[in-house]
Design goal:
The complex is a heterodimer of chains A (about 100) and B (about 120).
Chain A (H helix, E strand, L loop, with lengths): L3 E4 L2 E3 L5 E8 L7 E6 L6 E5 L3 E2 L7 E6 L2 E7 L8 E6 L5 E2 L3 E4 L1
Parallel strand pairs in A: 2-11
Antiparallel strand pairs in A: 1-3, 3-8, 4-5, 4-9, 5-6, 7-8, 9-10, 9-11
Chain B lengths: L2 E5 L3 E2 L5 E8 L9 E7 L5 E8 L4 E3 L7 E6 L4 E6 L8 E8 L11 E4 L3 E5 L2
Parallel strand pairs in B: 2-11
Antiparallel strand pairs in B: 1-3, 3-8, 4-5, 4-9, 5-6, 7-8, 9-10, 9-11
Classes of the chains: A mainly beta (about 100), B mainly beta (about 120).
């Protein structure tokens, strides 16, 4: 099994801030990594796949980078709609998710 | 556009069997490469992948749960059914079905681009 970790677990930020979330895999996963945004009571929403490919319709302030075992999600210019929990998910093998990073005010 | 919706009981007694149905539109599970997955999420926890089923009836189960899971597709109804046996209180959570994006032939793996709204399930007597 591939174990995913994320840091920080909680992040306090303000509108307009640049936010960086880190995700690490317990073994190399090449670039087989996705990022999701989840709001309370809602399903996760795909933001990024293949570590850095922006899903259609997702604002360009979201970007992803990394390969191997270390990855980042960057939100450049945090907007009110971005306060949510963010999960990474590896798909090098059986899918597994990170524990999440909650971005709050 | 692609939509999915889960349906089933909201309350299940311990040791009983859970049966959930995913009804989808906007794609066909007869098209080569297409897959549907089930993912669950316990309150306050990260999502947990359970299973994929593919257009050719190939099925890939989470190793930790495969003894309790069965997945079936009904292409005439555009439905996928998840069956989980021997339910316990720790299985309480929201169960999602989702469309797996076609991207490679690694059928063990995948990411989900369209999700249902989720079906809340509580396991309690």
């Amino acid at each position: 099994d591939i174990h995913m970790t994320q840091s920080p677990s909680t992040l306090s930020a303000s509108v307009g801030d640049r936010v960086i979330i880190t995700c690490r895999a317990s073994q190399t996963i090449s670039n087989w990594l996705a990022w999701y945004q989840q709001k309370p009571g809602k399903a996760p929403k795909l933001l990024i796949y293949e570590a850095s490919s922006l899903e259609s319709g997702v604002p360009s302030r979201f970007s992803g980078s990394g390969s191997g075992t270390e990855f980042t999600l960057t939100i450049s210019g945090l907007q009110p709609d971005d306060f949510a929990t963010y999960y990474c998910q590896q798909y090098n093998t059986y899918p597994s998710f990170g524990p999440g990073t909650k971005v709050d005010i | 556009q692609i939509t999915l919706k889960e349906s089933g009981p909201t309350l299940v007694e311990p040791a009983q069997t859970l049966t959930l149905t995913c009804t989808f539109s906007g794609f066909s599970l007869t098209t080569s490469g297409v897959g549907v997955g089930w993912i669950r999420q316990s309150p306050g926890r990260a999502p947990e992948w359970l299973v994929f089923i593919y257009w050719d009836d190939d099925k890939r189960y989470s190793p930790s749960l495969k003894n309790r899971l069965t997945i079936i597709k009904d292409t005439s109804k555009n439905q996928v059914v998840l069956i989980m046996t021997n339910m316990e209180p720790v299985d309480t959570g929201t169960y999602y079905c989702a469309h797996r994006r076609k991207y490679s032939n690694n059928w063990d793996a995948g990411f989900l681009d369209y999700w249902g709204q989720g079906a809340p399930v509580t396991v309690s007597s």
